[in-house]
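2024-03-11 09:14:02 INFO worker-7 job=invfold-0412 stage=load source=structure_tokens
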């Protein structure tokens, strides 16, 4: 019988698989090209966003006050969108293809659709930028109606979103192929699981974006008469907040990946880590309400249920990841013999390797600066202290710059030899880059939050309010803080510049490295038993005392900061 079945002379899917001699990872040829294209465009967009940051920061530095008002708002709009949407999502597409095709060792599903996704995203990003730089669309990130931008502004965002959605489906399709062609056994690796979380949230996010941006686009061309501002704000934040959860899920997956790459660290408990990712899917969208705490159109009950109850499940998930990752590193380091003192495992970590230092500076900054300030400002009463002040960008530069952007940078240093097959140029500069970028960003966020606590407005071209009918005398400290924002911002931009120099320079001039063995068949992931650490969770005793100490420091910082803000609120209105 079997002799009658026609045997295809060429494989159904003509592609090749390359095994990287430096990492052992297996790259499929088509997926690899897509990852490279998405990552390269991401870095170019980061360059644009970084150049725009110079204009923004040198205008908000009171002594410099560089750009004219209309230019400032245009540049601020472009900076926010290029950085938060285009840089991050282009890079995330590369991460999704990596977490599916590369980590599961299978070919990518529908590569042509993936190129279509890429093209739509690119056309969308360019269209949106052109609209912003033509003027008349300086509506900033949130683009609240009835403030209108040009139709091309919305059209660009919609095209980009459709592209990103297609990219997510290519990712899901690739998971199906891996399952069907049995390239792995058992459940998907944790890093892939995190990426799945990100992609599921992305589908919800993009749908919300479409629901609100399509009518707004139609309004901008005159077909729809009105979009209700309250409905707009509510649905916009279902999109705006959730998109940040995609970033969190993505950069936390990268932290797990780096812990595995740099230390061979296995998660302390796979089940707990996976459970924490699931909490994101269940509860993150509801936290969108924390963006609407000062909104008069919504009831207090709705705000309280969402931000004082549901939001904490998502916060809990982040704290689980924030502790289990250093914990896993500690366990791995102790197993290697760094077992003498409480923090010896951390001192002996590879601090000179930017893949590790970038990841760890990102983790600590995200937790201490982004996490604590996020919970503070997500509390309805305390929110009144900092609503619409520069505290807000102070908080989110700690999450999206220190958290997401710095993790992406750390991953890039790993990918230069592995994916791009180039030797990194200027390793000395690369070594200091995470410190310069990360630590100056820490400081930038802190002084921004300081200025915000004193009341300095967000998105305000002139904090001195010169010429205004009702002036305001700022305390000297407010001017000092904003000057420090300027100085720290310039230092961070220099750090970002080094990243771009090293990355682009390595791709252009770095020594070519050998490709590794190429084959027309994939090599499946060998079946491995669940790790001993994972199985003995809960009975392993006190495996990570150093991390426990770190957690206690975090807790004390959290409680103190929370207390200070309640005290401050009490004094502000004489309630105490
Ligand atoms: C490299 C150094 C960077 C510096 C010095 C910088 C500086 C600034 C400053 C001063 C503002 C204006 C705050 C205000 O007036 O309200 C701002 C806004 C913003 N930045 Fe950055 N930034 C940097 C990188 C990034 C990155 C990497 C991202 C995202 C991944 C980002 C996302 C944003 C967003 C979303 C806004 C708000 C735009 C809006 O209000 O519509 N920034 N940035
Ligand atoms: Cu949010």
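2024-03-11 09:14:09 INFO worker-7 stage=emit residues=576
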């Amino acid at each position: 019988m079997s002799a009658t079945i026609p045997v295809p002379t060429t494989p159904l899917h003509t592609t090749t698989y390359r095994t990287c001699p430096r990492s052992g990872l297996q790259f499929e040829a088509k997926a690899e090209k897509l990852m490279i294209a998405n990552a390269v465009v991401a870095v170019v967009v980061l360059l644009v966003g970084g150049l725009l940051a110079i204009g923004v920061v040198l205008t908000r530095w009171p002594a410099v006050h560089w750009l004219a008002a209309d230019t400032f708002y245009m540049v601020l709009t472009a900076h926010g969108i290029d950085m938060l949407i285009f840089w991050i999502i282009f890079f995330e597409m590369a991460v999704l293809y990596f977490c599916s095709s590369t980590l599961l060792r299978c070919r990518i599903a529908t590569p042509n659709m993936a190129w279509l996704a890429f093209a739509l995203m690119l056309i969308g990003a360019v269209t949106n930028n052109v609209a912003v730089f033509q003027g008349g669309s300086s509506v900033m990130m949130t683009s609240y109606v009835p403030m209108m931008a040009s139709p091309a502004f919305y059209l660009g965002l919609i095209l980009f979103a459709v592209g990103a959605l297609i990219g997510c489906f290519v990712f899901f399709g690739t998971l199906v192929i891996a399952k069907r062609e049995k390239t792995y056994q058992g459940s998907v690796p944790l890093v892939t699981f995190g990426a799945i979380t990100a992609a599921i949230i992305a589908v919800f996010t993009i749908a919300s974006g479409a629901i609100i941006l399509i009518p707004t686009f139609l309004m901008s061309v005159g077909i729809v008469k009105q979009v209700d501002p309250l409905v707009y704000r509510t649905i916009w934040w279902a999109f705006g907040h959730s998109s940040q959860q995609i970033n969190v899920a993505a950069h936390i997956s990268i932290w797990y990946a780096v812990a595995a790459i740099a230390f061979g660290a296995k998660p302390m408990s796979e089940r707990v880590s996976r459970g924490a990712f699931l909490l994101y899917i269940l509860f993150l969208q509801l936290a969108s309400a924390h963006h609407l705490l000062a909104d008069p159109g919504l009831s207090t009950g709705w705000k309280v249920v969402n931000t004082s109850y549901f939001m904490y499940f998502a916060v809990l998930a982040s704290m689980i990841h924030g502790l289990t990752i250093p914990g896993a590193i500690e366990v791995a380091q102790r197993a290697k013999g760094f077992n003498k003192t409480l923090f010896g495992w951390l001192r002996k970590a590879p601090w000179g390797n930017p893949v590790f230092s970038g990841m760890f500076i990102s983790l600590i900054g995200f937790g201490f600066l982004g996490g604590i300030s996020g919970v503070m400002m997500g509390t309805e009463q305390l929110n009144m202290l900092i609503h619409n002040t520069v505290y807000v960008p102070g908080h989110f530069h700690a999450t999206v710059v220190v958290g997401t952007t710095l993790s992406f940078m750390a991953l890039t240093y790993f990918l230069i030899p592995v994916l791009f097959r180039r030797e990194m140029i200027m390793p000395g500069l690369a070594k200091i880059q995470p410190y310069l970028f990360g630590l100056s960003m820490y400081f930038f966020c802190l002084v921004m939050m300081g200025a915000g606590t004193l009341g300095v407005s967000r998105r305000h071209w002139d904090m001195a309010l010169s010429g205004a009918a009702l002036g305001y005398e700022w305390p000297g400290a407010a001017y000092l803080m904003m000057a420090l924002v300027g100085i720290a911002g310039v230092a961070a931009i220099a750090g970002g510049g080094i990243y771009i120099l090293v990355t682009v320079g390595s791709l252009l001039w770095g020594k070519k490295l050998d490709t590794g063995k190429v084959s027309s068949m994939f090599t499946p992931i060998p079946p491995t038993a669940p790790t001993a650490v994972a199985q003995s969770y809960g009975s392993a005793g006190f495996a990570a005392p150093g991390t426990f100490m770190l957690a206690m420091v975090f807790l004390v910082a959290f409680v103190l900061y929370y207390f200070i803000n309640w005290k401050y609120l009490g004094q502000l209105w004489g309630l105490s």
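2024-03-11 09:14:09 INFO worker-7 stage=report msg="Residues 50, 53, 56-57, 60, 76, 79-80, 83-84, 87-88, 140-141, 390, 393, 397, 400-401, 405, 458-459, 489, 492-493, 496 surround protoporphyrin IX containing FE (ligand 1) (CB under 6 Å)."
2024-03-11 09:14:10 INFO worker-7 job finished
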